[in-house]
Amino acid sequence: MTIVLRGGRIVTASQDYVGDVLIEGERIAAVGSFPEVDAEVIDATGRLVLPGGVDPHTHLDAPLKGTMTADDFESGTIAAAIGGTTSIIDFPVQQKGEDPRVSHEAWASRAEEKAVVDWGLHQVIVDLPDEYFPALDYLIANGSPSFKMFMAYPGARMVDDATIFKAMRRTADNGGFVLMHCENGPVIDLLEREALGAGRTGPEENAVTRPPITEAEATSRAIALAELARVPVYVVHLAAAQALEAVAAARKRGLPVYAETCPHYLLLTEDVLMEPDFGGAKYVMCPPLRTRSHQERLWMGLRTNDLQVVSTDHTPFRFAGQKELGRDNFAKIPNGVPGIEWRTTLLYHFGVRKGRIDLNRFVDLISTTPAKLFGCYPRKGDIAPGSDADLMVFDPEKDVFLTAASQATRSDYNPYEGWEVRGAVETVLLRGTVIVRDGAFVGRRGVGTFLRRSTSSALT
Ligand code: URP
Ligand code: ZN
Ligand code: ZN
What we know:
binds N-(aminocarbonyl)-beta-alanine, alpha/beta, single chain, 9-stranded mixed β-sheet, 6-stranded parallel β-sheet, 23% strand, binds zinc ion, 20 strands
């Protein structure tokens, strides 16, 4: 099958020009001008042609606080595709006392059966007796060279510093990469218990009991442990300015320290936690939303490359029956928000259109750098001969009205309900097959394949 994407404005992390993209089978064959080629033509005149998005932080088919995320690998990846994302990396969660490969295989089989875009896995380590070291070695050697650990959620997923250090040291020996959820779990736990004891039970306590310093302290500690273990570290869902200062200072010292933020931290403030009738529960997450001044620091971090990635941390729940589990106790509200469907549009509108970042940086943040950091570049994250034909045609002038009424994610609310933004994903190709046409999903369940990632990250 030969396809030509004709006459679009081709934008990569480093280039910007008008041309055609020639696709043969699953790969990009050439980029240039191909007026005579006998092929199916997709007209991209007046639109942007971008590499498919790479979202390295999603939670699909995932248990959390006694319930499951509202999206499974099918609905979640359909939402991803509609949002221009053609590769995701999700998080299998190890059970205590269980070889990490067990959860890894369970996640893989669900993804294999259902995913409509390509998928990789960062294994979450919850428990690490020495006998599980070979499992880490195995996962690194078999295409999943990155692990996540939690410094939050004591009694559930939190690991202590010694375990973090052990996992980091082993990962360093294997050439892998460690992702850290940075919040001081024990201190937050105490603050939560004090709030509940004082009768403060509402969603707004999500921000009160997780102040920025608890995020900054854990971020500094994670960086220190990674420095000691000589391993590259990636701070997930960074929200607080002080945490970003810790990342920036480490990078200035030349340490391999990286961080992502998410659209909700760039665009929503903690004020929404006060929404009446328990509405604030929709925005409960960890770390919590912060104030305007933090947002400004995050935008600056995206420009200065102290933040290298915008992921979504897509953790969708329904308000009805799921967020409501915490009506009498904010600590029981399943934490997280949906986001995978709107990352491209939101970052384009509020980043590029508002003049905060340029087009190349936009592509870099949502596609190229995550592909590089997580060992799948240049197969993913670029428009070049030999790369997978994962592409989106993006209409920069089309208006989009964000509403739960028309979204693909199975969450029953939209955190950006009623927002009007400009810039829409029109067509998406996954390895040379059109999976979104005119903004509608036209792909098939199960066609997403395992993203076998290498340890040789082209780190930036
Ligand atoms: O609450 C948030 N941010 N997401 C849920 C899982 C995680 O990444 O900690
Ligand atoms: Zn996390
Ligand atoms: Zn997450």
